[in-house]
Amino acid sequence: MFDVISHSINPFSIQKQNEDQNEEPRSRPPREEREREDRGDVEARNFTYRIGFFQQIIHSQPASIHIEDLEIIDHRDTYPGGPGSGKGTQCAKIVETFGFKHLSAGDLLRREIACNSKYGSTILNTIKEGRIVPSEVTVKLIQREMESSDNHKFLIDGFPRSEENRIAFERIMGAEPNIVLFFDCPEEEMVKRVLSRNQGRVDDNLDTMKKRLKVFEAWNLPVINYYAEKGKLHKISALGTEDEIFEQVRPLFAACEVIK
Ligand SMILES: Nc1ncnc2c1ncn2[C@@H]1O[C@H](COP(=O)(O)OP(=O)(O)OP(=O)(O)O)[C@@H](O)[C@H]1O
Ligand SMILES: O=c1ccn([C@@H]2O[C@H](COP(=O)(O)O)[C@@H](O)[C@H]2O)c(=O)[nH]1
After folding, report:
1. What pLDDT, on a 0 to 100 scale, did the predictor assign at position 164?
2. How much is the ipTM here?
3. Beta bridge partners of residue 234, listed in sequence order
4. 63: left (phi over 0), alpha (psi -120 to 50) or beta
5. How far is the CA of 104 from the centre of ligand 2 (A)?
6. Tens of pLDDT along 37-87?
7. Which residues line ligand 1 (CB under 6 A)?
8. Would you say residue 255 has pLDDT above 90?
9. d(CA 34, ligand 1 centre) in Å
10. Are 76 and 185 in contact (CB under 8 A)?
11. Closest residue to atom 29 of ligand 1, CA basis
12. pLDDT averaged over the chain?
């Protein structure tokens, strides 16, 4: 495993200066800053967006499909697509049936921890705190997997977690999802599933789960709104057996197969 981040500036320290995930997400940057960004002013972008190290890469991969962490407005006892709602479980079924390449952002980050990569220990701490890893790190991991895959159909699971993630992904990969799914699950069910998952994850405990739900609630809403406005969002009830849930998912993907 090699480090995907080769910059001399640590993206985690940039994130710390610019973002407190315990606070509400910031609104859009002012127009002047956006214009600087559009002009490719790297220095301005670094400061403003925390993720500005990216080169603009136009990528020819066909658009990907995101299994998303999403949230419903004014419906606070359910957390669509939240932690433990069953996204990974359904992804496995989609892969089996439709031949997609499954990319779980969380798994990619955990792999960085396991192989002691440059930011492995910082990623570990971030995950223990239930916080969001800087987009620069996550998108580069996803990019590497997409570019080294023979497949052209991707299921991106648990990503984007924030508008910053979404914007970084679209900018780097030059691709948008064809479809975004959100899994609608009551909070107590998610907590129950996470606490009985039994896979030895450092974040499968009540303390981290509470933090994850809080971060999820604060940062996912703009992402949902964005995809809803684009007409790409599909809500799936996450209650029921795995097969029952897949019967809601299957037709959506069958329709995508036809579009090509
Ligand atoms: N329909 C279901 N009914 C009951 N348990 C389920 C169902 N689907 C998945 N599970 C179980 O719930 C746990 C969480 O599922 P899964 O890992 O797929 O969720 P996730 O949304 O990918 O979670 P995370 O975002 O934390 O990675 C697993 O132990 C899984 O076996
Ligand atoms: O895009 C991402 C995805 C994940 N994280 C961090 O990893 C954990 C676990 O993610 P799962 O999707 O539940 O496997 C999550 O709580 C975040 O801390 C991330 O930062 N960015």
Report:
1. 95
2. 0.98
3. 181
4. beta
5. 9
6. 443 333 322 222 211 112 122 222 333 444 443 333 333 344 456 788 899
7. 83-89, 106, 158, 193-194, 197, 240-242, 245
8. no
9. 39
10. no
11. 197
12. 76
Give every CB contact of residue 160 below 8 A, 6+ residues apart in sequence: 66, 68, 135, 166, 168, 169, 223
For residue 62, report the distance from its CA to the centre of ligand 2, in Å.
24
Question: What would the pLDDT profile of 118-131 be if each residue is shown by its tens digit?
Answer: 999 999 999 999 99
Residue labelled with tokens 């580069």: 140
| CB of 122 sitting under 6 A from ligand 2 | no
Nearest ligand, CA 128: 2
The three-state (H, E, C) secondary structure of 20-66, written as one string: CCCCCCCCCCCHHHHHHHHCCCHHHHHHHHCCCCCCCCCCCCCCCEE
Mean pLDDT on 201-227: 90
Residue of 231, 236, 197 whose CA lies nearest to 70: 236
Residue 236 Cβ < 6 Å to ligand 2 = no
Ligand with minimal distance to 211 CA = 2
pLDDT at position 2: 38
- To which residue do tokens 């997609």 refer? 100
Would the pLDDT of 26 be above 70?
no
